[in-house]
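On clarity, I found the account of how folds are encoded harder to follow than it need be. For illustration, here is how one protein appears when written out as sequence plus structure tokens.
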Amino acid sequence: MTVTRSLGRPTTLARAIDALGFVQADPIRSPARAQDLTLRPRVSGYRAGDLERLYPSLGIEEDVFINYGFVTRSLHALMHPRSVSALWPSPRNTRAQSVLAFVREHGSVHPRDVDAQLSHGSVTNYWGGSSNATTHLLDALHYKGQLRVVRREAGIRIYAAREPGAGPAAPVERRARLDALVDTAVRTYAPLPAPSLSILVRRLRYAVPHLRRELPTALERARQRLRQARVDGVVWYWPRDEVVSAHPAGDIVRLLAPFDPVVWDRRRFEMLWGWAYRFEAYTPTSKRKLGYYALPMLWRDRIVGWANVSSNGSELDVEFGYVESRRPRDRGFSAALEAELERMRVFMTAR
């Protein structure tokens, strides 16, 4: 079920995003950005960079859901307006308003243009380092919903002002919005063991910080609303309108992104496939076991190993690792792996 419900037949980019609801983004490009690697097996003919190239025409938004990424506009509407007063201490508010006024005056702006006109020095960022204060203010205005990302240029977000939306939702509407947000998260990542469902709902505090106190009751409603089954003492949840499918996964090899919905829940990953996958890009080289950006290797409905992939022009450089210390001997595996590597090579080739 985990594989077949998330990785069905490839479709169009718009339909794939609509089916997922949310695609997590990550700036590391090894061999491509996480959002591209996630969409690659779900979109026919997808190539690295297609999401960024087609973003203005897709009717989607960059925003924070359970992480930062790309969301449908219907999902975006459920999360706004955000009330995030903690981001607006009095001295910063004046500077934020000057940035917002500049963007409104100029239409769409590159952060460097804002900084050239309204340089605010630097601030201490989340990791304790130094960040450009103007960029920090643009990010805060975007998070609050007063700016939107209209496109990217060489990976840099280009901002425009967003028209003010409606005021805060009424209590009944807040409940309906939270339930819809939970259902979207579950639809993206199900089936979920009970502890993972709790973590996923708690992470919605980033999507709706103004409703974070209502998340515990939203979790209780979800436990009552969702389909569920107990397997080996663990309760699993999935959308209530889905029936568990017994269809086989097919003789296909797929190399998945570390943030792919099939891989994202590390607890579930270990429960289903019996070994611990770790994202090691930020692990010291001497302590890595899988590699800098290891892509889990899915064969049929089993994760049988991983691959570290880099591109050398039109060719791929691939290093493999296998869970059982050797590649599967199943009939058809070698041909399926070669087909996946060819798909990866085409994916890496610029349009």
About this structure: Residues 186-238 form one domain. Residues 171-189 form the longest helix (19 residues). The radius of gyration is 21 Å.
